[in-house]
Specification:
With 908 residues, this protein is mostly helical. It is 70% helix and 3% strand.
């Protein structure tokens, strides 16, 4: 290849078009051929062509140029040499056809030269040689078709430029090669060749990141090149990009699905990134691809996969892998395989299958009682209980096991697993020799096997058989562990040895103070033995506040402990400590809500004891939570050990306990915090109940301003409920606040027909002295309910108040109207202490004292009314009547009568 041609430089610089570049190049090549001046005669060449058969002509003119290329074009070098030898000529130089189009220095040498130029004689080509060549080319073509090589998307017009770029790269002119590749990419962006060349260039320059990026583009444009994908995966791993390497191996596997090496590498990478399932799927594919002759690798891989499945708690998958290995290569099954398979079966509670595997591969013999063997057809069991019964019946049908014969070369691990399987099959007598042999071994060496057998006995309820094994373990030095002491305590508890069991549980708590189950069991036993203080001591807090704030599992265990502690305290009647436990739990749930409500839980000492108290604090004294949403999610995760309904019940119990102890202010603060908790506030029923509880707590705490806020919101939602208006009257009566005046007026505008609002607004106007407004409200109520005596009383009293004013016109008509409504009231209410007292009070106000005395005395003669739910003393008006009479007699100068009524009815 010559130096860079001027037309190529002009084309790369954009000075000429591609057609102009092609024209100049052809002119230059034609000029060089004329200057070369080869002396071959055209007529001789034509005669020589005529001497060759027609088939050879076609091969020489067409197939030779296209078929005899480099191996990259799909024809091997052997075929090219065979072709040349058949023609009697030698291959002096073989280069790419694409490079021939760029420069004539790399073109093929002329093949049809005379024998004299070669320096030797050539033999004539026979038809047999031509046929052999055609058969060889046919085989090569079939091989190429099977390989499914992708067709290049590089246009023929750009192949010369691509060849020039490759030559420049080979010569070290990398900058020019990069420019050429970029130009090719601009014109043919879907061709992979320029990207591949750029990847090689940047790799040589040490820029591995760019090399990887261009290589990935080239691989995606030519995805069937598996080796290229593997190379890119290695480059990705060098840059610590494991996920990219996994993608590359996946692409390679897609086009070569039976390549075990690719599958193995991808599965290993999946394990590195924690994708256990994908890794195991890859190993399963490897198992299916391994030939039957490669049994050792199959068994080793199966063991590794089963171990991995077991560590990830996928017992069914682990058992499936081991079963396939045992069935496929039974001749290669070792004691290690049998031990692993038996352990998996036992972990999955498939003791029958474990026993079958041990008998099958370890030559273990079970001698049964042949006299009891029966064959019965049993129906298919449906439930677990039916399955257990069916297993027992099958065991009885096979005959009772009298003796177990175990070969001497069986390891002790397999012997112990055999014992465990037989124990779970309710076979105990034949185990005595094996159990004696195991007990003769030192527990310091075989302690784990001791524990397996003991746990098997405990699972079957054979606590007497398990106790010696556990006692030997707790007395050893190596296995004097908390888990062994826990099993020992459980065994003693099941046997009824409570005192000794308490000591074992105490040992467990001492060795593992964070073991929750041991603490709960110890507390229960202490309570059963009549030691309440020791029972509470076992349920002392396990974690400090900092640990609870950071560790979610620790918070959940602490909640379980506090729940049991609160139940125990309540049963012992220790209310203050019970409230402390409930407040501690609720503070963990309402952590964020208490900050928003400005409520804090503190420990205070009163009457010599230390207890928890809820107090209201200012916002600047609380630690601000920046991300409340994240904090709420964190609290939800920590408190998920209890359901939302359980938390709701705990909240109600705490509020009841606080009210029993007259701690109404703390109950009010707890309600405020609960209303700030999303889960309670979003539930409409719970929110309403909390509002009622807050109203009650605020009223009992005499915090009427807060009670007014609650009742106001309730009335806005339920304006027709009479009970709420009664509570509203009580709150406004006690609060001495006038805020409710405007509230009632605004609410009246929205509900003009509401009876309670008419009366309340009338009372407000009457008290404020605007009698006309009061009369309008009362008359509206009277028109709505004319038979209600209260309405007639209010209208009559309003007329009396208007008549009692200093400057009033038509005083007497007002008095007459007032008496008419007042008498209507007496008729509707009836003659009773209440109606006669109100009549006398009205006459007293008008100054008609003689008539007032008459009706007062008449009211005294009536007994008080009997009202359901109200005590008689609360509706008895005799003290008020006697006092008014004393005032009238004292004003008239009759002090004796005044003294008489006071001493008779008003003496305490």
């Amino acid at each position: 290849m010559s130096e860079s041609s001027p037309e190529l430089n002009d084309y790369l610089e954009g000075k000429i078009s591609f057609e102009e570049f092609e024209r100049r190049r052809e002119e230059r090549r034609a000029k060089r051929k004329e200057e070369a001046g080869h002396g071959s005669d055209e007529n001789d060449a034509a005669d020589q062509d005529d001497a060759i058969p027609s088939t050879s002509k076609q091969i020489r003119r067409t197939a030779w140029k296209h078929q005899i290329g480099s191996t990259e074009e799909g024809v091997s070098l052997s075929v090219q040499k065979a072709f040349a030898s058949m023609l009697g000529e030698g291959l002096e130089e073989i280069v790419d056809e694409d490079m021939d189009e760029d420069d004539d220095e790399g073109e093929w040498r002329e093949i049809g030269e005379d024998d004299e130029d070669e320096g030797g004689g050539g033999s004539e080509v026979t038809p047999g040689d031509v046929f052999a060549l055609e058969m060889e080319l046919n085989r090569e073509n079939k091989k190429m078709m099977k390989e499914r090589r992708p067709r290049s998307k590089l246009p023929r017009a750009l192949r010369g430029l691509m060849g020039e770029a490759n030559i420049r790269y080979a010569r070290g002119e990398k900058d020019d090669a990069i420019l050429m590749c970029m130009e090719i990419i601009r014109q043919a962006p879907l061709a992979y060749e320029p990207f591949s060349t750029l990847a090689m260039i940047y790799e040589d320059q040490g820029d591995m990141e760019k090399a990887l990026q261009f290589g990935l583009i080239a691989a995606h444009l030519n995805p069937s090149d598996c080796e290229e994908w593997v190379k890119l995966a290695d480059m990705s791993l060098e840059q610590d990009n494991v996920k990219q390497a996994i993608i590359c191996y996946t692409k390679a596997i897609k086009y070569d699905q039976s390549n075990v090496r690719y599958l193995w590498e991808r599965s290993s990478l999946y394990e590195q990134v924690g994708e256990h399932k994908q890794a195991m799927d890859g190993y399963r594919r490897i198992l299916s691809l391994l030939p039957p002759t490669d049994g050792e690798h199959f068994m080793q891989l199966s063991r590794d996969m089963a171990k991995s499945y077991y560590e990830s708690n996928e017992l069914s998958s682990a058992i499936g892998v081991m079963e396939e290995a045992l069935d496929r290569h039974p001749e290669l099954v070792s004691h290690e395989c049998v031990n692993m398979a038996a352990e998996l079966y036992i972990a999955n509670h498939q003791y029958g299958k474990a026993l079958e595997a041990l008998i099958r591969f370890c030559n273990i013999m079970l001698e049964r009682d042949s006299s009891k063997q029966e064959t019965k057809e049993q129906p298919v069991p449906e439930t677990e209980e039916e399955q257990k019964v069916e297993k027992k019946e099958e065991a009885e049908a096979k005959g009772e096991i009298l003796e177990v014969v175990v070969p001497d070369d069986i390891p002790v691990d397999i012997r112990v697993k055999l014992m465990v399987c037989l124990i779970h099959q309710s076979v105990f007598k034949p185990l005595d020799p094996m159990l004696t042999s195991l007990m003769e071994q030192s527990p310091e060496e075989l302690g784990d096997l001791y524990l397996d057998v003991a746990e098997a006995f405990m699972d079957e309820g054979e606590y007497n058989s398990a106790l010696p094994l556990l006692s030997a373990l707790v007395c050893s030095e190596r296995y004097n562990l908390a888990v062994v002491w826990l099993r020992h305590a459980e065994c003693l508890k099941a046997l009824g040895h409570l005192e000794v069991a308490v000591k074992s549980y105490s040992k467990v708590v001492e060795m593992a103070p964070l073991h929750l189950e041991a603490r709960l069991a110890l507390s229960t036993l202490q309570q059963q033995l009549g030691r309440p203080n020791c029972a509470l001591q076992a349920l002392e807090p396990m974690y400090d506040p900092d640990t609870l704030a950071q560790d979610s599992s620790a918070a959940q265990q602490e909640l379980k402990l506090l729940l049991h502690r609160s139940t125990l305290l309540r049963s012992q009647g220790r209310t203050e400590d019970y409230i402390d436990a409930l407040l501690t739990m609720l503070s963990m749930l309402l952590k964020v809500a208490m900050v928003r409500a400005q409520v804090c839980l503190i420990a205070s000492t009163s009457s010599g004891t230390r207890h928890l108290r809820l107090i209201k604090v200012s916002r600047n004294k609380l630690s601000e939570i920046e991300d409340q949403e994240a904090a709420y999610l964190d609290v939800t995760g920590k408190t998920s050990v209890l359901s939302r309904e359980d938390w709701w019940r705990l909240l109600l119990q705490c509020l009841d306990a606080l009210c029993e102890e007259k701690r109404f202010a703390e109950a009010e603060l707890l309600v405020d915090s609960s209303l700030e908790f999303y889960s309670f506030y979003d539930d409409r029923a719970k929110r309403k109940e909390l509002e009622y509880l807050g109203l009650s707590a605020a009223f009992l705490d005499r915090n009427f301003r807060k009670a007014y806020d609650y009742i106001r919101l309730m009335l806005m939602c339920s304006v027709e409920r009479a009970q709420l208006w009664n509570v509203f009257n009580q709150v406004t009566l006690q609060s001495q606040d006038v805020r409710h005046h405007r509230f009632c007026l605004r609410l009246m505008l929205k509900n003009p027909e509401n009876h309670a609002l008419c009366l309340l607004n009338g009372h407000t106007s009457l008290v404020s002295g605007t009698f006309k407004h009061a009369l309008g409200q009362y008359m509206q109520a009277f028109r709505n309910q004319p038979c209600n005596p209260l309405h007639s009383l209010c209208v009559g009293l309003t007329f009396f108040h208007m008549a009692s004013q200093k400057f009033v016109m038509k005083r007497h008509p007002l008095v007459l109207q007032g008496f008419s409504f007042l008498w209507r009231y007496v008729e509707l209410r009836g003659h009773c202490q209440e109606s006669l007292y109100n009549l006398g009070r009205a006459l007293h106000q008008l100054g008609l004292t003689h008539l007032a005395i008459h009706y007062y005395q008449k009211a005294l003669s009536f007994p008080p009314l009997k009202l359901e739910g109200i005590e008689d003393d609360q509706v008895d008006l005799r003290r008020e009547i006697a006092y008014n009479l004393s005032l009238l007699y004292q004003a008239s100068g009759n002090k004796e009568m005044a003294r008489y009524y006071i001493y008779t009815y008003c003496t305490v």
